[in-house]
Design brief:
Shape of chain A: flat
Largest sheet of chain A: none
Strand content of chain A: under 5%
Number of strands of chain B: 10
Largest sheet of chain B: 5 strands, mixed
Number of strands of chain A: 0
Distance between the termini of chain A: 47 Å
Radius of gyration of chain A: 27 Å
Number of domains of chain A: 2
Structural class of chain A: mainly alpha
Number of helices of chain B: 22
Oligomer: heterodimer
Helix content of chain B: 40-55%
Helix content of chain A: 55-70%
Structural class of chain B: alpha+beta
Radius of gyration of chain B: 27 Å
Distance between the termini of chain B: 80 Å
Strand content of chain B: 5-15%
Shape of chain B: elongated
Largest interface: A-B, 87 and 118 residues
Chain lengths: ~150, ~500
């Protein structure tokens, strides 16, 4: 096994470890928080707080920095996996025709879809669709960002 | 040494595609002030969807996410047909196709940067090709079926993909907002949903380290939508069939799971152009060549290359000027009135315990809330000082905020339980306020006093409100704030807060 290969594997393990620890930190906080809620019966004990999150994430930071440092070292030293340029891929036969014919149907479809898009947008502006997009986008979408 | 540096720069300098990706990321997130203030942009440009995946709850976002907006439009399909969003996706699809993914998607950029971390990589093969169809399933179930089902049959807001999967929302929206100390109380809202989405985000990020554009290839429903347009989109990688000898070098060297150049998986990155010995491939927009073979057999004539570069420079200059204008507009000129206006002078009719101390007036716990008056939806007037001697509960809500609407019956019940010692005031956000009265007509929440916020009243500003809703503020009988948190509440919590307000008075 070459030195480069060892470097790549160590970095892979480090990345996987960082991701696992970050995931475990959140899961641990959740389990601990729900257990705490059940134990105290308090209606106002929160699962996540800034302090709890900071306390959980701080020990993982050195590993994150180590991974970043290894990434920088890899870039500087030019260590990366060799690309399999031009080699046949196992199980993926390249078809005879690598291109798809365009021509008239494409031209027809383009024109038809452009007209359709313009008509739909005009109809949407008139039925209040534009305003609805603004209304939703200008408020924080709790469901979208997973606050809950 | 100079030559070494020159060679290094030549090998590592950002490509036109990388610059376009960076440009798109900055263009979509031009509200840089939002990252500092921990607030999202509420300017009029939010009505326009950007072509790439970019969460509109990101503090920097100046436009709407097409995928989020589509889900909300489908959610509301029961009363408003989603023509606008279908039209927008059609327009982007037919003009750009999946060129959006390769050139104008901030999440695509992030995935490519993660893939640069030096680790062993997973090659494409049968498994990755099979997995590439997963995104169509996600599109059908989470983007189309779930929002329509919940919206039309249950009357509930549920953007399925955003809520359960989207790592862009978790990273840009949740982490972007929570990392700002100003949003400390938003942590209280985090429960199982966030835990799950956090794990998904990490898994996707880790996947991208090992596998080229893992999210884009296997999960992204926006890519799936644009992929449907790829065959006939104006912009994309096209093959000159007369020059092509069918060697297959393009498909072999492509990192996406393509079967043909320019098929539904092709993101038009243009890498195949350099692999084509025949010079048969070019990135085109209609009949205009954006990037073509510059060396080798069938290379474009030097004059054509020079002309293309000149046009490229002109376009880049215009693009940079447009970005500068957007940055100025989003960060300086379009500050919401409520932010730029000075807070109204406190009009406390009844002095607080220690009127000399100005810092006693505010919306933090322990402070006295500034007096205000507002007209109510019932036609009357609500003046805070008139309710001195009673517990006042204020909720900040909006018709389009699902958790807000879910908790309003609790407030109504609380008011019904304590008619003589409590006042519940529900303030609707200024955005969408016009629709609130109609929305409330058949709800039967008659015990709550409803009012609407506006730029002039700035009621949200008085109680430290923001675009993060719901928010509940509880005042004891002296007008002192005992609770002010941005999080949904249960009926039991409201009862406990009411009891606490009564106790803190004694």
């Amino acid at each position: 096994m070459t030195r480069n290969r060892v470097f790549l594997i160590v970095q892979a393990v480090l990345c996987a470890l960082v991701a696992t620890l970050l995931a475990a930190a959140a899961i641990g906080l959740y389990i601990e928080g729900t257990a705490g809620q059940a134990e105290t019966g308090s209606l106002f004990s929160y699962i996540y707080t800034r302090e709890k999150v900071t306390a959980r994430l701080s020990p993982i930071l050195p590993l994150v920095f180590a991974s970043l440092g290894m990434t920088a070292a890899g870039w500087i030293l030019g260590i990366r996996e060799k690309e399999t340029v031009g080699r046949p891929m196992p199980g993926l036969a390249v078809k005879k025709s690598v291109a798809q014919k365009a021509g008239r149907p494409a031209l027809f479809m383009r024109t038809a879809f452009l007209i359709l898009a313009a008509a739909l947008i005009a109809a949407g502006v008139m039925n209040g669709g534009l305003e609805d997009v603004f209304t939703k986008a200008a408020a924080i979408c709790m469901e979208c960002i997973g606050l809950g | 040494m100079d030559k070494k540096i020159f060679n290094w720069w030549n090998a590592h300098r950002p490509t036109a595609r990388r610059l376009s990706q960076l440009y798109a990321a900055l263009l979509y997130n031009a509200h840089l002030k939002g990252f500092v203030e921990g607030r999202i942009f509420t300017g009029s440009s939010k009505a326009i969807c950007v072509p790439g995946l970019n969460c509109y709850s990101c503090p920097g976002a100046v436009g709407a996410c097409p995928l989020g907006a589509l889900q909300n439009a489908l959610n509301a399909a029961g009363h408003t047909a989603p023509w606008y969003m279908l039209g927008i996706l059609c327009l982007y699809g037919v003009i750009l196709g999946r060129t959006v993914c390769g050139w104008f998607c901030p999440i695509g950029l992030l995935q490519e940067l993660l893939h640069k971390i030096p680790t062993p990589k997973i090659k494409k093969g049968r498994t990755t090709r099979a997995l590439s169809y997963l995104k169509y399933g996600i599109l059908l179930v989470f983007v189309i079926a779930l929002p329509i089902w919940y919206g039309v049959t249950q009357g509930k807001t549920l953007p399925g993909f955003c809520k359960y999967i989207c790592p862009a929302g978790t990273l840009e929206g949740a982490v972007g907002l929570l990392s700002n100390p100003r949003n400390e109380t938003s942590f209280y809202q985090l429960k199982l949903l966030f835990t799950g989405k956090w794990v998904i985000m990490l898994a996707v990020g880790l996947g991208c380290v090992f596998c080229w554009r893992a999210f884009c290839r296997f999960l992204c429903p926006l890519g799936a939508i644009y992929g449907l347009f790829n065959r006939f989109a104006f912009t994309g990688v096209k093959v000159d069939l007369e020059k092509c000898n069918g060697c297959g070098a393009c498909v072999r060297n492509c990192r996406m799971d393509v079967r043909h150049v320019g098929d539904h998986e092709c993101i038009s990155c243009g890498k195949c152009i350099s692999f084509c010995a025949q010079g048969a491939i070019a990135l085109k927009c209609g009949s205009l060549t954006l990037k073509g073979p510059e060396t080798g057999k069938n290379a474009d004539p030097e004059s054509a290359v020079r002309k293309r570069r000149l046009w490229g420079r002109i376009l880049w200059t215009i693009a940079v000027l447009a970005l500068a204008a957007l940055l100025i507009w989003a960060n300086v000129l379009s500050a919401p009135k409520s932010e730029s206006m000075p807070a109204p002078e406190p009009a406390v009719t009844e002095a607080p315990a220690d009127p000399a101390a100005d810092d006693l007036i505010g919306a933090e716990v322990g402070q006295h809330l500034m007096d205000f008056s507002t007209d109510t939806l019932g036609g009357g007037e609500f003046r805070l000082s008139d309710w001195r001697g009673k517990v006042v509960v204020i909720t900040l809500w909006a018709t389009y905020c699902a958790p807000c609407v879910e908790e309003l019956p609790f407030f109504d019940r609380l008011q019904a339980e304590h008619p003589d010692s409590l006042a519940v005031l529900a303030i609707h956000h200024k955005i969408g306020a016009k629709k609130a009265e109609k929305y409330l007509a058949d709800k039967g929440w008659d015990h709550i006093i409803f009012c609407l916020d506006s730029d002039e009243k700035n009621l949200f500003g008085i109680v430290n409100g923001s675009e993060t809703m719901p928010q509940t503020i509880v005042l004891n009988q002296k007008g002192e704030v005992i609770y002010n948190v941005q999080a949904p509440v249960t009926y039991e919590q409201l009862e406990a807060l009411y009891a606490q307000a009564c106790v803190s008075e004694k």
